[in-house]
Structures are given as C-alpha cells and as structure tokens.
Amino acid sequence: MNLDRFSVNQMTVKQLPLPELVAHCVRLGIPGVGLWREPVQEYGVEAAAALVRDAGLTVTTLCRGGFFTTDGWEEANRAAIDECVTLGTDTLVLVSGGLPPGSRDLPAARARIADAIGTLAPYAGERGIRLAIEPLHPMYAADRCAVSTLDQALDIAERFPAEQVGVVVDTYHLWWDDRAPAAVARAGATGRLHSFQLADWTTPLPAGVLNGRGRLGTGAVDLPAWAALVEKAGYVGPVEVELFNEDLWARDGAEVLEETLEAFLAV
Amino acid sequence: MNLDRFSVNQMTVKQLPLPELVAHCVRLGIPGVGLWREPVQEYGVEAAAALVRDAGLTVTTLCRGGFFTTDGWEEANRAAIDECVTLGTDTLVLVSGGLPPGSRDLPAARARIADAIGTLAPYAGERGIRLAIEPLHPMYAADRCAVSTLDQALDIAERFPAEQVGVVVDTYHLWWDDRAPAAVARAGATGRLHSFQLADWTTPLPAGVLNGRGRLGTGAVDLPAWAALVEKAGYVGPVEVELFNEDLWARDGAEVLEETLEAFLAV
Question: For the segment B20-56, what is each residue's pLDDT rounded down to a tens digit?
Fold first, then answer.
C-alpha cells in the first residue's frame, strides 16, 4: 500500500513520547496518526492537538471510547467525543466492553451496548464525530468487548445514521471469520466503514492474549486479500497499523516505526 | 443435569491412569467416559476396550481424529475410526487442523478439510462410526482448527449423510457466538448433534491459550442456558465435561473428578 494511506496507531510505538512520535512521522513522511486518550491526556489535549496540527499530521482516529458495561461510561464517552473535536479527528473508536461483573448474560450486555451507543450518537453527530464500533476477536468477549463480529457491529450501527455510527475493520480481530468478507461489503455499501486497521495473527498467543499482535507479514493473515476486500468495498481512507506487542515496545521506537512503515508498504 | 447423562472426558483428569479413572467412575456411578487416542494406545486399545466394557462404562466419544491439513491425515484417521470400533463408541471427534505450514489461505484450508472428511465418511459409515466435526474457538483458527463456528461445521457435515458426519457442540468454543443458538437448532433438526461438551470460559487466558478451560460454574458461560438450548434441539445423549487445565492436572485426580461431577449436577 502507498505511504499516503499510512497511519501509525500510537499504541504500536507507545514507548515514543508524543513529540518524538510526531517528529519521526514528519521525518518519514507519514501522514497520519491514530491517538490514544491516556497519553494524549497526559500530554494535554490542547497541546497534543497543536503539536499534530503544526506538524501537518492527520489524526485518523482517537482510541478509544466504549466500555459501556461499566459505570461512568456516559461521562467518559462524552469527554472522548469532545477530545475528538479538539484533536481534529472525525472518528472515535469504540471498544464496547464485556460482561458486567457477575453477569453471564451476553445478549443483555450486547443490548446494553446498543442502548449506550444510541444515547451517544446524536451528541457525536452534532459535533461531526463518527462513532466507530470495533468488533474485537471472540477471545475478548467476556472481559473486553461483547461485540465479536463485524455483522454484530453493523447490526448495531445500522440503527443510526451512517454519519453518526459506523464500524472499524481490524484484520487481527476479523481474519478468521468466513462471514467477514460479506460484512465488509455490507459496511461499504451502507457508508459505515469508518476505519481500517492492520495487524497480523501470530501464535502462540501470550498470557492474557492482549499484547501479542503480529508485525505485518509475520503471521497467518492474508493482508493483501484484506486490503483488496476493503478497497472493493469502496474504502479509500487511511489505514492504521495498530500492534499491541511487548517485544516491539521493548525496542527502539523509531526503529519499530521505520520497520512498520516498510512492512506496510510491502503489503 | 442428571448423573445418567454425565460423561467425563479423559483429558479432564489426565493425571489418572486409565484403570484408576475407570475404578473411580464405577465408584461414583459415572456412566460414561470420553477417551483420547494417545493414552488409550499406551494402555493398549484392546485392553482399554475390555477394561471399560467389563466396568459397564459407555465410551461416549473418542478424541480425536482430524488434523486434515497435515501429512499422514488419512492413515491416522482410518486408524482412529478402527479404534472407535474396538472401543465400542459410535463417535469420533474431529479437530480439523489449522493452516498448512506457510499458508495464509484459510478458505483453502477449509476446503481441504471438507474434502478429507468426504474421503473418510463412507469408511466411517460402513463401520457404524459418526464423524463429529468440532468447531474450535476462533483463537485456534491458525494452528489447530480452521473450522471456527457451528455453522461452518454444519456446512461441511450437511454434504454427507447424518449417520456419517455430524458436529460437536462445546460451550467453551461456541459460547460467544450469537449465531450459535440457531446453529444448534439446525444441528438438531438435521440429526447431526452428535456430542455435547461442557467447559467454562475463564480469564485471563494462559499463554498458548490451550490449557485454561474453566471449571463449570466459575466462568462467563451461561451453562444452564446452553443445556436448555441443546435439549430443545432434541439432544438426549451424554454430556461430556472436557477441561484442559494445568491447575486441575496438578491436583489429585479423584478429587477433581468428584468436584467435576458435583459441578455438573449443579448445572
């Protein structure tokens, strides 16, 4: 894929302080970054916004809102939407949350998530922010995200206007699903494909299964096929590379960024 | 659930040598066991068959055939079918195998699995053995089983007569899937629900994600709802408890067996 589509998700090189990340992006000609709320808040939201704006970077997404099955979700998500406005991004990624403590009722958790998104959608829409529901791999259904497939995410999104609620397609979470190709087409046809993220699937998975996302080209995912699928669905936006990986975090951030860019261009 | 439905999968208490497992089942009134090929071969297939037969135990399944994407699958699976005949069970559980080495073509792996099952089905049918395709959790799609949902398993099974090829419903693998309830009904309606296995989903998952299946009642799965679902689909056969769990294997096997039985009766 081409450099002008590339966006590096901040989590991929979380060892880099924001000013260094921005400087390296400028040096390498990287046009976009996906930011995370916590490091942005640490730096200061206004200051972060000025930093990326002055560097000419596009903030492709803010990660993340969601966790609708825990207390305080509404206030936290309204704040996240406001932060999107400040940062100049139009897309808030939603990781919806798992089962509430003590519950085994997955359908109820999913209903609660849909209700919460309904509460937030107008607020987001009035501010020009799109809520992008990210289905996470089913191995996170209990404790992180009860929305496990792209079809589930679309079933929720389609209750609302496309400029308010859409979906994220992340290869790490969806690569295994034989229904995902049709769902990607569905997302494209309804104007709800709001973000495309890449990571590869490598095994064995680490304990806790959170921080073992594979560098592009090192795992089981047919990334060119996914890129073609998303393109065929009409998606022409930025492509984020988002790797949660302890090994990468332990290395020199600039080196990891350069390597990630190279792997992206090779897809 | 009632004792007369209970079957203990050998892997749950793999620390118990087969004669001890059989003796404890007799002592506790447990009517069924699901056996694994490797420990049965170590003991001797004929000898194992005599042991369980003399104890009046039903061998509910033999685990496992499959791994169709690796060399030697045909000979291994014909041998597994023959072992089913010797052991007096009518069901061979299939774990289908993941991507072949170096491949990223998941649809091709799935096609190869379906072809292999087609090769074996008549051989199994002539011997009164049912091949039971077990969809495994999507976190195993790359390296263990490319059949990730019950619908996928049924799509393959339905190409063949129901007395030759069916499916396994295992709560650990399917609990997250919102389409699973309809698929369970489909399996029942077409006479293909050949085995029902229970395990709970607990987090965090251990490294490698293989040996962290939860004891019944300790995790996220609504087991009574699953039991009701399978019953509504017309399944009246044995219910196996199959736990792969390092912590349980480190404990006294008889104690684990008693505890597992109690937890089963409480579902």
Answer: 999 999 999 999 999 999 999 999 999 999 999 999 9
- How far is A9 from A226, CA to CA, in rounded Å? 18
Measured between CB atoms, does B267 come within 8 Å of chain A?
no
Nearest CA to B213 among B175, B261, B239, B255?
B175
- Measured between CB atoms, does A82 come within 8 Å of chain B? no
Q: Cα-flanking dihedrals φ and ψ of residue B133, to 5°?
A: -75, 125
Query: How many domains would you assign to chain B?
Result: 1
User: What is the predicted pLDDT for the residue at A225?
Assistant: 98
Convert the pLDDT of each residue in B94-152 to its tens digit. Answer: 999 999 999 999 999 999 999 999 999 999 999 999 999 999 999 999 999 999 999 99
pLDDT at site A198: 98
CA-wise closest residue to A118 among A62, A63, A165, A155: A165
Residues of chain B with Cβ-Cβ distance to A206 below 8 Å are 207
Contact residues, chain A, for B219 at CB < 8 Å: 142
Q: How confident is the model at residue A164 (pLDDT cuts 50, 70, 90)?
A: very high
Least Cα separation, residue A19 to chain B (angstroms): 34
DSSP state of A95: E
Q: Nearest-CA residue of chain B relative to A217?
A: B104
Mean residue pLDDT of chain B comes to 98
Mutate which: A139, A150, A155, vs B, most B CBs within 10 A: A139
Nearest by CB: B204 against A105, A208, A222:
A208
The overall pTM is greater than 0.90: yes
List A7's β-bridge partners, or say none: A32, A240
Does B76 touch chain A if contact means CB atoms closer than 8 Å? no
Report CB contact under 8 Å: B209, A208: no
Q: Which domain holds residue A162?
A: 3-266
Residue range A41-60, pLDDT digits in tens: 999 999 999 999 999 999 99
Is B107 close to A207, i.e. CB distance below 8 A?
Answer: no
CATH of the domain at B133: 3.20.20.150
Q: What is the mean pLDDT of residues A76-85?
A: 98
